[in-house]
């Protein structure tokens, strides 16, 4: 889970029509199920006349990728699963998609539904802007003022960002670094003296 991954930069919409039925898709960046379901609730409110709102997401957890889908009353694996396959095919994470179906009077069959739900999601994804994300880990640094200039120079490296700073008798910095470079930062900080540092959870870092 330390490796860089792609998500999408902004919400996008897509559309597929088949034999009178219309499949409207929304694909959104979402770093938690709660964020996705909030976006989906607003989308469903816009489409109150539709009966089916199938969805899927691929959201990174603390230790693994969580992939879920829901057919929303359509035949098993004919709606949510093909939406999930579209997200997998485009190799995006921290992304959710909902596809809303307006029935046009002609039954499409399971095969037709699979193609339509996946096609609508893919239409939206083709219009998306992919964005590269680097998972981060968090550290607290306690240093003398003499080391502050060196730490400020380090901050020009794109692999580190300052979250918060506190200037008291000593300087306390809360930083986030790319997880893929974690060992490099460990080695660097161990060479800096006098510097005390420790890894912390995100909630422990000051913001």
List the SSEs and their pairings:
Layout: E1 5-8, E2 12-18, E3 21-29, H1 33-46, E4 52-60, E5 65-70, H2 80-89, E6 95-102, H3 109-126, E7 130-133, E8 136-143, H4 148-154, E9 160-167, E10 171-178, H5 182-191, E11 195-200
Antiparallel strand pairs: 1-7, 2-3, 3-6, 4-5, 4-6, 8-10, 8-11, 9-10
Helix pairs in contact: 2-3
The biggest sheet, with number of strands, parallel, antiparallel or mixed sense and barrel status, is: 5 strands, antiparallel
Can you tell me the residue ranges where pLDDT is under 50 for at least 5 consecutive residues? none
Number of DSSP helical runs: 5
How helical, in percent, are the residues? 25-40%
Summarize the structure.
This protein is α+β, with helices and mostly antiparallel strands and 207 residues long. It folds into two domains: 5-132, Ribosomal Protein S5, domain 2 (2-Layer Sandwich); 135-204, 2-Layer Sandwich (Alpha-Beta Plaits).
